[in-house]
């Protein structure tokens, strides 16, 4: 389903995660992400197999002082869309937020994905138009990281850097 999602989002070459990486991230000693799986109901009420997933992790708001949920990916297979699976996955994540006292449930959506935007709007999700996502990867990420290599960051050096930038 991850590869199907990458195809849908017009980025098939970017889906490079291996089964081993996913297993470690989800089920290793220190899980970094969590997943919910939507399943169809088969005959006699038995599960009919997975038809969707939500991959999420906790974030933190310095303004509210609480954790939140960041939904990294939501995907439902084309044949199962319209069956309530996506809404059920989102509702379960909302339930997790409320139950745990998390203040926010956030995600990103591609600006061309009108069906998803309409779906999220119908649920009451507000666009965060004033925010722009930024990303470092590849060579720019390595270049910035090289500037910190071998440098111990201490609270004194952070304070000094902060006062110099003000």
UniProtKB/TrEMBL annotation:
What's the protein name?
A: GNAT family N-acetyltransferase
Q: Which UniProt keywords apply?
A: Acyltransferase, Transferase
Taxonomic lineage is: Bacteria, Bacillati, Actinomycetota, Actinomycetes, Kitasatosporales
Checking SUPFAM superfamilies in the record gives: Acyl-CoA N-acyltransferases (Nat)
Which CDD domains does its entry note? NAT_SF
List, for all copies, the residue spans of the domain called N-acetyltransferase: 1-146
Q: Where is the signal peptide?
A: none
Q: Which Pfam families match?
A: Acetyltransf_1
């Amino acid at each position: 389903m991850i590869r199907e999602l990458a195809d849908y989002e017009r980025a098939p070459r970017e889906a490079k995660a291996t089964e081993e990486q996913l297993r470690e991230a989800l089920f290793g000693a220190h899980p970094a992400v969590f997943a919910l799986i939507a399943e169809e109901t088969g005959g006699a009420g038995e599960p009919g197999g997975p038809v969707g997933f939500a991959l999420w992790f906790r974030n933190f708001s310095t303004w509210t002082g609480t954790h939140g949920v960041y939904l990294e990916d939501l995907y439902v297979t084309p044949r199962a869309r319209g069956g309530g699976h996506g809404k059920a996955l989102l509702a379960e994540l909302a339930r997790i937020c409320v139950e745990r006292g998390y203040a926010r449930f956030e995600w990103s959506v591609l600006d061309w994905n009108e069906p998803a935007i309409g779906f999220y709007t119908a649920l009451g999700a507000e666009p965060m138009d004033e925010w722009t996502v930024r990303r470092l990867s590849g060579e720019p990420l390595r270049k910035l990281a090289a500037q910190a290599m071998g440098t111990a960051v201490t609270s004194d050096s952070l304070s000094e850097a902060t006062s110099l930038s003000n």
